[in-house]
Amino acid sequence: MQWLIVVAAILMVVSPVMWLKPSPRQRRQSRLREMARQRGVEIAHREAPLHRVKDKMPAYRLRYPDEHPGPDFVLVRDSVASAELDRYCPGWRFRIAPLRPLPASARQALEALIAKLPEDVLVVQSSAAALTLWWWESATAESFAPCVKEAAALRDALSGYADRPEARPPAVPGTRPRSRH
Asked: Would you state the pLDDT for residue 167?
């Protein structure tokens, strides 16, 4: 009888420790996020630019340099897109299309990226500040690393291709422009 009480006491001490132990999914996500951060990706949980998804979703952001903002567009996977949206390529539609056609290098980089993305990447978004992938983090760090590399190549191809170039005052004839420094 005494040994039964000892075993019960040990189980009472050990059980809370087991609850604190990360699950296999949490360990996989931790490795995935660490790999992404090491490659310059910022990770946040925010509301995705989707109508049907109301939960906060992981957003993997690659920032454009401040002096070279990117274009604005939202590319959505067919599985969460309306049939009314403009098709970009098989499986993807523009919810918000770029104002100007993307350069050939950016189109090639975008197509290379979306060909490698896991099925749970639902949105590829570009704003003046960053290129963002919205997804549910199903991949491992090893399988998602090539996607991060392709996303960085797309960010570099889109950098400086902003829809709204910085507004500058009109030049006055006969004067030299002032330096901003």
From this structure: 44
